Every structure is written in structure tokens, then in C-alpha cells.
Amino acid sequence: MTDEEQQLHELLVNLVSNTHRFAKLAGSFASDQYPRAWLRALSLLEEYGEMRISDFARLDRSSQPSATALLRKLGENGYVERRADPEDARAVRVTMTEKGRKILNDGRNEIADALVPHFVELGPEQIKKLADGLAELRSIIKTSDPS
């Protein structure tokens, strides 16, 4: 491994470790009103759009029965719509509703509001660096998405 590859490797290890820590911190502020599993599911539907339950389970890295139960619960609350797949009557497709978009947005804002006090001392330069780095990371992730 070259020095550059080693530096990249170390950077990626740190990125994975710190994003996990940040997600854990953020998740600790989530209320029971917006269960993390619900927000995670709605985030997947926001990112990938309408899909079969089997595809959702694969993306969520969950079993099909677990995904079915989660999406059924979201459907009962009006956050997702379920319909038969026109290409395969045995399959079910799910999509997020406007009500689902609202609770996803509300849940994210609730967490962000709780995180603000932990970052209030950041200066404008630090905020700009974080924003620029996040934009770059989003761009890289978008072009590297394995699905």
C-alpha cells in the first residue's frame, strides 16, 4: 500500500468511526414520537423512491418479515402507501406519503434542534469548512452508491 493509499485508508476508518459516533449522538436526542426505525425507513424511501418490500429489506439490511412488519406499521399510521406490484401480483410496493415526508422532516428537525447547543461555539469558518466537506462527501457518496 502506498503512503497515499494508507492515508486514505486511515481517513476512511476515521470517517466511519466518527459518523457512527455522530449518528449515535444524534439518535440519542430522538424522541419516542419518531422511532429511529421509522425515520430510517422513511429516509430510505426518500432516497430511493417507491420500491418492493424485498428491495427495501435488502437496502435496510433487514429480513423480509421485519421489513414487512415495519412498513405495515408505517402504512397503518399513514406514512407509507402499500400497493400491489403491477408486474407481480404477489409482490407489494411501498412509497412514502406526504404525511411520511412531514414526520421525517419533523424528526430530523427535532434532532437538529437538540444538537445545536453542542455546536453553538463553532465559528463561521468552521461552519463553512463543515458545509464544504459535507457537500464534497455527498457528491462522492452519490457517485459511489452500490445500489
Query: Count the strands?
Result: 3
How far apart are the termini? 28 Å
Structural class: mainly alpha
Main-sheet strand order equals: 1-3-2
Q: What shape does the CA trace take?
A: globular
Rg (CA only): 18 Å
Overall average pLDDT: 91
Tally of contiguous helical segments: 6
Percentage of residues in strands: 5-15%
Structure overview:
- There is one protein chain.
- The chain has 147 residues and is mainly alpha-helical.
- Helices cover 70% and strands 12% of the residues.
- It is built from six helices and three strands, in the order H-H-E-H-H-E-E-H-H.
- The chain has helices at residues 3-28, 36-48, 53-60, 64-76, 98-119, 124-144; strands spanning 51-52, 80-85, 88-96.
- A three-stranded antiparallel sheet has the order 1-3-2.
- Helix 2 packs across helix 5.
- The chain is globular.
- The protein starts with a helix and ends with a helix.
- The mean pLDDT is 91.
Quick structural summary:
The chain is mainly α and 147 residues long. The protein has helices at residues 3-28, 36-48, 53-60, 64-76, 98-119, 124-144, and strands at residues 51-52, 80-85, 88-96. It has a 3-stranded antiparallel beta sheet.
